[in-house]
């Protein structure tokens, strides 16, 4: 539990593919002789099977990139079991203390002792995308070498545009800055999605960024361009550069485990 709700933010953007995208469907079509070996992930939308990017895939890609970027700021390494707060008897008792003692990555993405403050929606396609098909030599998962002359055929998607929504609760300003930084890395091709990235797959760009913020309480925030609505203040900021200005003061090198909680209103 977060306790009191202080603020909320919603960051929306379009994910536009820049190269083929292959997020593999988990189901096995081996009983259907006409089926390809691998297919992009789909879900039913308006009664039709459409491609989508699972929110968990996006969150995973963002988290692992963030861990690399903030490695020198006390970020823990959950994959290699170096958690910043082990889930044992010695962990701090209150959620607030556990949050404060956590590294900047766990504070945002959550850990085994604190709940995540960010959620990534499943991103649904909303344009006329293309479906491509390729065949390559099958690679043995264990040895990493070619499986004799076995061929692997798969379907991927191209020229697709997806809509994504990232929601935050009780956020700190650095968390908005970190998400923007990761979006920039995505635009530059350092943060990729799905499989076959070594073949150039999975490059995407974020467009049409918009940030909606709500600050709860009756403070007068009109000097920060908020509009007062009964029991909260709200504002909308459009475009990467304008959103970046709100958090330009944040210095990543000052972030650390057990650091102060930044309660500044952006
Ligand atoms: Zn951590």
Task: Characterise the protein shown here.
- The structure is a single chain.
- The chain has 266 residues and is an alpha+beta fold.
- It has a domain at 7-56 and 121-254.
- Helices cover 19% and strands 31% of the residues.
- It is built from 5 helices and 11 strands.
- The strands form 2 sheets. Strands 1, 2, 3, 4, 5, 8, 9, 10 and 11 form a 9-stranded antiparallel β-sheet that branches. A two-stranded antiparallel ribbon has the order 6-7.
- It is globular and about 65 Å long.
- The model has no long low-confidence stretch (mean pLDDT 89).
- It binds zinc ion.
- The site of zinc ion has 7 residues, from helix 3.
- Keywords: Antiviral defense.
- Residues 15-205 form the CRISPR type III-associated protein domain.
- This is CRISPR type III-associated protein domain-containing protein.
